Structure formats: structure tokens, C-alpha cells
Amino acid sequence: MSRRFFAALIAAVAIMNPTPALASAEPSLPAACTVGGIAIPEGQPAPANIPVVVSCFDSVEEAEDFIGDGAPGDFEQLYPRGTNARAAAAATVMVGKIWTGTSRSGSVLIHWGSGNGCSGATYGFPSLGSGWNNNVRSAEGFNNCWSSQYDGASYSGFVVTCTPYCGSLGALAAKTSSVVYRPVGTFG
Q1: Which are the contacts of 112, defined by CB distance < 8 A and separation ≥ 6?
Q2: What pLDDT, in 10s, does the model give residues 97-156?
Q3: Which of 54, 106, 113, 173 has CB 3.0 to 4.6 Å from 101, enough for a Cys bridge?
Q4: Per-residue pLDDT at 36
């Protein structure tokens, strides 16, 4: 199935069934989804109205190839100023992954952005979306990023920082509602 179909399917399920899943039941998710973010330089405020751009795939390899190819279609939604495909491919970078299972198991949500990872920049994801909210059990940061998992939306509540990997989130397992990727050495 196409990545666009999966993204539409996830949105449709969320609309048709707004009741949250029981904490013990894992919702059916695609093998891998990607979500893009905007790099915020240190000390700068986040821009308003950043779109949530999600694509889903049948395998982790497909999702990683999509990011490596410049996240075509998704990149243009985040950066609408007409960046060409070659520049987009050079600009996309994976900043982290979160999994529904412990020790890198289950479905994975891969966070990506533009630039050089967390070298002088932060990437924030104030919500995780349907199926991912309160369903994360392991996490890892990439490209000079540490991952901070929050139990509240918009970076509120209890936080666990993975430096860069957490095989289990301990007390925060199945409670993550937002994620921030910061430069190595920076705690949430």
C-alpha cells in the first residue's frame, strides 16, 4: 500500500473512533511512519502553524529511503518556498525514532528534519498523533540528538531524556505525548 493511503487511513480511524485505546492494547499501526519537523536554532522561538506531515510505509527500510531521498512531497509541505528536489535530498536528516515496543521493537515513528541534525538546533514534536500518543516504549536520538520524552502534550509534565538510546522508558513507558530532540549534552 502507498504511504499516502496509510496516512489517510490513520487520520480516518482517528476521526471515526476518537475513544483512546486501552493502555494494554496496542493499536494496529503500519511498520514505519515518518514525520517531519523544522529545525529551531538555539535561542529562537518556534514558528507558528507548523504543519504535521506524516507518511507511512510497509517497512523501516522504505521509510529511511524516503527520508534519504529528501522526503519528496512532505519536504515541500514543511518548507513551501520552492526548494528543489536535489537541495531537499541533501537537507533531510533523521533526528530520532520512537517504537511501540521495548528495545527497538514494534512499529516505529521516525522523526526527520532539515539541516545537520541537532548541531546548534532543536526539533520539537508537540504531539504524536493517533496511535502513537501514550504508546511509546523505547526511543533513540540520531545525528547529534538526545531525545526527551514528555508525558504531556507540548512538552509538559514528567520527562525522560534518552542519551541517545532508551531500551525502555521506565515509568514513562506507554505515556509519551510529545518529544523534543536537543543537542547532545542537553537534558529536557
Answers
A1: 34, 35, 36, 37, 67, 71, 92, 93, 94, 95
A2: 999 999 999 999 999 998 889 998 999 999 998 889 999 999 999 999 999 999 999 999
A3: 106
A4: 94
Burial class (CB in 10 A: 0-12, 13-18, 19+), 150: buried
Task: Note if the bond before 27 is cis, omega within 30 degrees.
Answer: no
Instruction: Work out the burial of residue 188: count CB atoms within 10 Å of its CB; fewer than 13 is exposed, 13-18 middle, 19 or more buried.
Output: middle
pLDDT at 11 over 80: no
- If DSSP codes are grouped into helix, strand and coil, which group holds residue 74? helix
52 pLDDT band (50/70/90 cuts)?
confident
Residue 172: DSSP 8-state = G
Alpha carbon 178 to its chain centroid, in Å, reads 9
Q: Are 115 and 41 in contact (CB under 8 A)?
A: no
Strand, helix or coil for residue 97: strand
Specify the DSSP class assigned to residue 82.
T
Phi, psi of 126 (to 5 degrees): -70, -15
Q: How confident is the prediction for the chain on average, in pLDDT?
A: 83
Tell which phi-psi region holds residue 94, choosing left (phi > 0), alpha (psi between -120 and 50) or beta.
beta
Predicted pLDDT at 129: 82
User: How far apart (Å, rounded) are the C-alpha atoms in residues 46 and 180?
Assistant: 12
